[in-house]
């Protein structure tokens, strides 16, 4: 009997030791994560917020070693590095990959369509999250949207832009495939530059005006030092989404509980990012004004014209690729569905009331 008891206790001790070893091994798992943003661009704070929160919530299972953009590889290479598993995760703005699949463009931002709350609603309740998984899943990745910023600043430079007529012949730094097409219809030409190059391009007159992000980000990037004029609102990017690309094999190696913690951290970061960005934009707007920057606003007539061109660009682009059509179809379906409640609560609602949307029927014909 004593021998049996001793055996049982020995087995129990071995089981406890094995469990401890398993737990220790899990705690020792390390992820390397980088981002498209260098240290001097404030958008990196969204990536850092998520990584820090994950380490707090799931530190026993996975630790994220976060590296600023450009310290491991150029920002343009993070997509391939994550897809192949060279690194486990990287923060991004989906629009940078529109050359691979145009559906990445609306997953990142829209021209004259969604605002920040629309993206939040769509991602969490109207099927948007699943579309991110579908598109990024084609490249061996899981995607967690974890950042939303509202309307971007607009165009800043040394040449005044007071109306759409002033865009004729202008060279403007602009991100996004669809955004560039709308600008071309308005008579301007799109110049593609990395965010860190916009300051010098304005300063040296390489571009007539440029945009990068929200007023908070743009002010910290030094735009008030080189820009005399600011054309607003930033119709070209009515809101933007940021997130983390995660190698699918690395994701699958995590327990379901750990995966849930990473998703929880993403949702918390998303809410934080929107309010953080709006506070930063508010403070920075005052700083731009104090610095003597002249603000010009496009008229309602100009914005209505932009909406017309945008609708046409969306429909034409949707017919070029079924994934592009699928994402926009989902977005416009959301806007039409949400309108039943949104419009009767105007102006005390959380979303923009739009009377003129892209044709859902024409997009459906392209699916």
TrEMBL record:
User: Which keywords appear in this protein's UniProt record, sorted alphabetically?
Assistant: Signal
Organism of derivation: Vreelandella alkaliphila
One Pfam family here: DctP
Q: What is the lineage of its organism?
A: Bacteria, Pseudomonadati, Pseudomonadota, Gammaproteobacteria, Oceanospirillales
| Domain of life of the source | Bacteria
- Keyword Signal annotated: yes
Q: Which InterPro entries match?
A: DctP_fam (IPR018389), SBP_TakP-like (IPR026289), TRAP_DctP_sf (IPR038404)
Q: How is this protein named in the record?
A: ABC transporter substrate-binding protein
**Signal peptide: which range, if any?**
1-27
């Amino acid at each position: 009997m004593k021998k049996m008891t001793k055996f049982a206790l020995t087995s129990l001790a071995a089981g406890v030791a094995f469990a401890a070893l398993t737990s220790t091994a899990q705690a020792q798992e390390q992820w390397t994560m980088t981002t498209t943003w260098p240290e001097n661009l404030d958008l990196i704070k969204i990536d850092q917020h998520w990584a820090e929160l994950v380490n707090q919530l799931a530190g026993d299972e996975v630790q994220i070693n976060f590296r600023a953009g450009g310290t491991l590889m150029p920002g343009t290479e993070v997509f391939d590095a994550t897809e192949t598993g060279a690194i486990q995760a990287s923060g991004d703005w989906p629009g940078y990959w529109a050359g691979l699949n145009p559906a990445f463009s609306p997953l990142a931002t829209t021209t004259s369509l969604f605002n920040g709350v629309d993206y939040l609603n769509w991602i969490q309740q109207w099927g948007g999250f699943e579309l991110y998984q579908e598109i990024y899943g084609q490249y061996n990745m899981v995607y967690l949207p974890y950042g939303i910023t509202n309307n971007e600043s607009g165009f800043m430079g040394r040449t005044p832009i007071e109306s759409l007529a002033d865009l004729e012949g202008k060279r403007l730094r602009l991100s996004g495939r669809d955004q560039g097409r709308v600008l071309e219809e308005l008579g301007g030409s799109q110049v593609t530059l990395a965010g860190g190059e916009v300051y010098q391009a304005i300063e040296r007159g390489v571009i007539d005006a440029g945009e990068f992000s929200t007023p908070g980000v743009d002010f910290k990037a030094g735009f008030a030092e080189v820009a005399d004029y600011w054309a607003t609102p930033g119709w070209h990017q009515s809101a933007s989404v940021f997130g983390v690309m995660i190698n699918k094999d690395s994701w699958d190696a995590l327990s379901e509980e750990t995966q849930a913690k990473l998703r929880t951290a993403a949702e918390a970061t998303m809410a934080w990012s929107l309010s953080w960005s709006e506070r930063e934009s508010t403070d920075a707007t005052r700083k731009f004004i104090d610095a003597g920057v002249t603000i010009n606003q496009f008229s309602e007539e100009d914005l209505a014209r932009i909406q017309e061109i945008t609708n046409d660009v969306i429909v034409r682009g949707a017919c070029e690729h079924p994934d592009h059509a699928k994402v926009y179809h989902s977005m416009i379906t959301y806007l039409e569905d949400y309108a039943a409640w949104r419009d009767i609560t105007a102006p005390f609602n959380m979303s923009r009331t739009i009377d003129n949307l892209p044709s859902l029927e024409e997009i459906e014909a392209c699916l």
